[in-house]
Amino acid sequence: MTHQDDVAASLEQLLESLIKMVGRANKNNDNLQNKITEINENMNNQKKRISQLEWIMKGQLKERDWSPIRTYPTHHYTQTPSEIHDHISHF
Predict the structure, then answer these.
(1) CB 52 within 8 A of CB 60
(2) pTM of the predicted structure, to 2 decimals
(3) Cα(13)–Cα(40) distance, rounded to whole angstroms?
(4) Where are the beta strands (DSSP E) in the chain?
């Protein structure tokens, strides 16, 4: 083989390697694009679900405001006068 043949063979191998690299890069790019599309779809679905929940909550608040029955918060723990006195006397 001559020197030119060696250079030509090396260039051919280099070209083949570059073509494979570009192919892999394109495949990776396609995979990333698919993932981005999937993530965007998931985000849109989550936004829709959040909007639905907000709509439900607003409806419940309106319903509560229109209701003739009012619910007031209750204290779960009530102290007796002696307990209050004992608590105050510790200061």
Answers:
(1) no
(2) 0.53
(3) 40
(4) none
